[in-house]
Amino acid sequence: MSANERLLLALTELAARDKATPCQGRRSARWTSDSHDDLEWASWHCSSMSCPVLEECGAAADEDHIKHFVWGGRIRSPKPRSAA
Ligand code: SF4
Fold first, then answer.
1. If you take atom 6 of ligand 1, which residue's CA is the nearest one?
2. Could you tell me if 46 and 69 are in contact, meaning their C-beta atoms sit under 8 angstroms apart?
Protein backbone atom coordinates (compact mmCIF):
# COMPACT_ATOMS: atom_id res chain seq x y z
CA MET A 1 0.00 0.00 0.00
CA SER A 2 1.39 3.42 -0.92
CA ALA A 3 1.74 6.26 1.57
CA ASN A 4 -1.08 8.11 -0.20
CA GLU A 5 -3.35 5.08 0.13
CA ARG A 6 -2.46 4.82 3.84
CA LEU A 7 -3.32 8.51 4.30
CA LEU A 8 -6.63 8.14 2.49
CA LEU A 9 -7.50 5.10 4.61
CA ALA A 10 -6.59 6.93 7.83
CA LEU A 11 -8.67 9.96 6.83
CA THR A 12 -11.61 7.74 5.90
CA GLU A 13 -11.45 5.94 9.25
CA LEU A 14 -11.23 9.29 11.05
CA ALA A 15 -14.28 10.65 9.22
CA ALA A 16 -16.19 7.46 10.04
CA ARG A 17 -15.63 8.27 13.71
CA ASP A 18 -16.86 11.82 13.06
CA LYS A 19 -13.39 13.26 13.77
CA ALA A 20 -11.33 15.72 11.78
CA THR A 21 -7.71 16.77 11.49
CA PRO A 22 -6.63 20.19 12.79
CA CYS A 23 -6.24 21.44 9.21
CA GLN A 24 -9.88 20.69 8.45
CA GLY A 25 -11.12 23.33 10.86
CA ARG A 26 -12.21 26.90 10.26
CA ARG A 27 -8.58 28.06 10.11
CA SER A 28 -7.65 25.58 7.37
CA ALA A 29 -6.41 28.34 5.03
CA ARG A 30 -3.36 28.81 7.24
CA TRP A 31 -2.03 25.40 6.12
CA THR A 32 -1.96 26.60 2.52
CA SER A 33 -1.11 30.24 3.09
CA ASP A 34 1.50 32.29 1.25
CA SER A 35 2.49 33.76 4.60
CA HIS A 36 5.40 31.99 6.27
CA ASP A 37 4.07 33.08 9.67
CA ASP A 38 0.81 31.27 8.94
CA LEU A 39 2.72 28.16 7.87
CA GLU A 40 4.76 28.25 11.09
CA TRP A 41 1.53 28.50 13.05
CA ALA A 42 -0.01 25.62 11.09
CA SER A 43 2.99 23.32 11.43
CA TRP A 44 3.04 23.90 15.16
CA HIS A 45 -0.66 23.05 15.36
CA CYS A 46 -0.22 19.75 13.49
CA SER A 47 1.83 18.54 16.45
CA SER A 48 0.40 20.49 19.36
CA MET A 49 -3.13 19.41 18.47
CA SER A 50 -1.89 15.82 18.05
CA CYS A 51 -3.13 15.27 14.52
CA PRO A 52 -4.10 11.59 14.37
CA VAL A 53 -2.75 11.18 10.83
CA LEU A 54 0.47 13.16 11.23
CA GLU A 55 2.76 10.30 10.24
CA GLU A 56 0.64 9.25 7.25
CA CYS A 57 0.35 12.86 6.08
CA GLY A 58 4.10 13.41 6.16
CA ALA A 59 4.78 10.12 4.40
CA ALA A 60 2.28 10.97 1.62
CA ALA A 61 3.93 14.36 1.10
CA ASP A 62 7.36 12.72 0.98
CA GLU A 63 6.10 10.14 -1.51
CA ASP A 64 4.83 12.88 -3.84
CA HIS A 65 7.81 15.20 -3.23
CA ILE A 66 5.45 17.99 -2.26
CA LYS A 67 7.22 21.32 -2.02
CA HIS A 68 4.45 23.62 -0.82
CA PHE A 69 2.49 24.40 2.32
CA VAL A 70 2.36 22.30 5.50
CA TRP A 71 2.15 18.53 5.51
CA GLY A 72 2.84 16.18 8.39
CA GLY A 73 3.77 19.01 10.70
CA ARG A 74 6.48 20.25 8.38
CA ILE A 75 6.65 23.37 6.24
CA ARG A 76 7.32 22.25 2.67
CA SER A 77 7.34 25.72 1.08
CA PRO A 78 10.74 27.32 0.59
CA LYS A 79 11.67 29.84 3.25
CA PRO A 80 11.16 33.42 2.09
CA ARG A 81 14.32 35.42 1.49
CA SER A 82 14.79 37.97 4.22
CA ALA A 83 14.75 41.61 3.22
CA ALA A 84 18.22 43.11 2.91
S1 SF4 B 1 -0.46 16.48 9.91
FE2 SF4 B 1 -1.39 16.72 7.88
S3 SF4 B 1 -3.55 16.16 8.15
FE4 SF4 B 1 -2.68 16.57 10.16
S5 SF4 B 1 -3.14 18.71 10.60
FE6 SF4 B 1 -1.08 18.61 9.72
S7 SF4 B 1 -1.38 18.94 7.54
FE8 SF4 B 1 -3.38 18.38 8.40
1. 46
2. no
| Ligand 1 pocket residues where CB is under 6 Å | 21-23, 31, 46, 51, 53-54, 57, 70-73
Which are the contacts of 60, defined by CB distance < 8 A and separation ≥ 6? 3, 4, 6, 7, 71, 72
Q: Report which secondary-structure segment, H or E, holds 71.
A: strand 70-71
Strands 70-71, 74-75: pairing kind: antiparallel
Whose C-alpha lies nearest to ligand 1, atom 8?
23
Return the ligand 1 atom nearest residue 42 CA.
6
pLDDT tens profile 34-84: 999 999 999 999 999 899 999 999 999 999 999 999 999 999 999 887 755
